[in-house]
Structures are given as C-alpha cells and as structure tokens.
Amino acid sequence: MTVWERLRPYSMVAPAIIVFAMFFIYPIFYMMYLSLFDWNFVSPTKTFVGIQNFVDLLSEPDFRQVLSNTTLYTVLTVTLTTGLSLFMAIWLNRSGFFYGLVQGAIFSPHIISLVSISLLWSWLMDPEYGLLNWVIGLFGFGKLEWLSHPSTSLISLVIVAVWKGLGYNTLVFIAGLQSIPQDIYEAASLDRSRPWTTFTRLILPMLSPTIFFLVIINLIGSFQVFETIAIMTQGGPVNSTNTLVYYIYEAGFRFFKIGYASAAGVILLFIVGILTIVYFRLLSSRVHYR
C-alpha cells in the first residue's frame, strides 16, 4: 500500500474535521481561556484573574437561582415530553386517515420557528386578552398571571417547550414501535399477557434505544433554552425564569462581562458533560438493541 493510499481516507475527512475544529473545538478552548480574564469586550487589554470569575459566580445568589431554574426546567421538560410522547405514540401507532391527520397536526409545531411559537404563546398567555384565560374563565376559574408571576412563569415556559417537542418525540417513538417485530405481539397474545405486562415487559425494553436517544436530545436541548425566555419573559419576573444560556447572554452582551459569561459557559459545558457521561454509564447497559 502506497503512502497516498494510506493518506487518502484522511484527506477525504479532513475538510469536515477542519470545519468542526474551527467552529466547535476552538471556541470551546477559547471560552475556557477567556474565563480566566476580566474583559469588557471593547478594551484591547485583558486582566488575568484566574478562577476569580468562577468564585464570584458560585457565590452569587442570582446564579444559584439560575442553576435551580435550569435544573427544574430540564427535569420537567424532559420528563413530560418523553412520557406524553410515548403514550401519544402508542395511541397513534395505527393506520387510518384520522390518526395520520393527528400525527401531522402534533408534528407541525416542530417545523415552526421557535420565535414565532414564543410570540404566539405570549399572546395566548396574556393575562387580560389571552385565549387561555378566556377558556379557563368559561369553567369558572379566575385569571392566571401566566408569565408575570414567579409561581407560574417557569411552568408556562415548560408548557411551551413540551407543546413544541411533543410531535417530534411522538413520531420517533412511532418509528420505534413500528420496528418491533409483530411476532412479539402475537406471542404475548397467545400467552394471554395483560396490556400492562406487555407494555412493561416487552414494549419498553424494545423501545429502550429510542428512549435513550430522546432523553439525551431533550436533556441537551433543555439546557440550551434561550429563545422562549428572551422573547416571553427576559428572565423575569424576579429572576424566576432565568436559565444558564440566557444568563450567559446577559452577562456577555448586555453587561459586557465576557470573562464572567465565559466562566458561566464553562460551568454549563461541565454540567451537560457530566450529566451525559453519568447517563451513558448508568443506563447504556439497560439498552437492548435486539
């Protein structure tokens, strides 16, 4: 084998590797570098402060609340989206015009811009003229301050996230259900297996690769939420909906504390990386591909 034949595979993947390194690997290391400095994004000089940005962040009450908000938002969004889409997929996993129509209807939010969805839900959740308060008023309930009260604002954002992600997760689950051999269902029927037993002992283990994939995707997406917060709440009221990515944006591009924002970005990278590794370590052995 000549030298060129050995190098040819690497030359073919080199453009993709170069692009990946320029736009993904280099920014991560540069963010880590900036997290050690005090810089206002305008001045040509940077002041080295070491780990002081991290110390200031972790001792700041607002940042600890941001971590709490992000954790609660992620847990609720991932749990509700995955659970609801699984049961929707089981219901819609059949042929017929009606079921195809419902599949298309619940998938449509996934292809709509998140900015448009945020503006739509801002109107729906308006305390005075919103459609949601009008509907619950028909049942005798009082008006809710969906986005303007700390007790309901974060839950309101979770509702928007679940509504947008439900269709995509449902169709992925349907694809997973349709990949299960029919012989398994026939064997369960011959054994007179109860529906709940069939679901827990057969369907869930066969769907474990799909669940594993969707939980990872939803987990990372929830930690990166930005558009809905920037448009609907701007982190308020009283910091109740501020999450890590929006906090990084404010610190960097509103207050021009680039080192501070970079330190928060490193913390976000560390949290997502640790959660992903732990998730793979704990649950990858429970995934059944056959």
TrEMBL record:
<feature type="transmembrane region" description="Helical">
    <location>
        <begin position="104"/>
        <end position="124"/>
    </location>
</feature>
<dbReference type="GO" id="GO:0055085">
    <property type="term" value="P:transmembrane transport"/>
</dbReference>
<keyword id="KW-1003">Cell membrane</keyword>
<keyword id="KW-0813">Transport</keyword>
<feature type="transmembrane region" description="Helical">
    <location>
        <begin position="12"/>
        <end position="33"/>
    </location>
</feature>
<keyword id="KW-0472">Membrane</keyword>
<dbReference type="InterPro" id="IPR051393">
    <property type="entry name" value="ABC_transporter_permease"/>
</dbReference>
<protein>
    <submittedName>
        <fullName>ABC transporter permease</fullName>
    </submittedName>
</protein>
<dbReference type="GO" id="GO:0005886">
    <property type="term" value="C:plasma membrane"/>
</dbReference>
<dbReference type="InterPro" id="IPR035906">
    <property type="entry name" value="MetI-like_sf"/>
</dbReference>
<feature type="transmembrane region" description="Helical">
    <location>
        <begin position="198"/>
        <end position="220"/>
    </location>
</feature>
<dbReference type="Pfam" id="PF00528">
    <property type="entry name" value="BPD_transp_1"/>
</dbReference>
<keyword id="KW-1133">Transmembrane helix</keyword>
<feature type="transmembrane region" description="Helical">
    <location>
        <begin position="258"/>
        <end position="280"/>
    </location>
</feature>
<comment type="similarity">
    <text>Belongs to the binding-protein-dependent transport system permease family.</text>
</comment>
<feature type="transmembrane region" description="Helical">
    <location>
        <begin position="72"/>
        <end position="92"/>
    </location>
</feature>
<feature type="domain" description="ABC transmembrane type-1">
    <location>
        <begin position="67"/>
        <end position="279"/>
    </location>
</feature>
<dbReference type="InterPro" id="IPR000515">
    <property type="entry name" value="MetI-like"/>
</dbReference>
<feature type="transmembrane region" description="Helical">
    <location>
        <begin position="154"/>
        <end position="177"/>
    </location>
</feature>
<keyword id="KW-0812">Transmembrane</keyword>
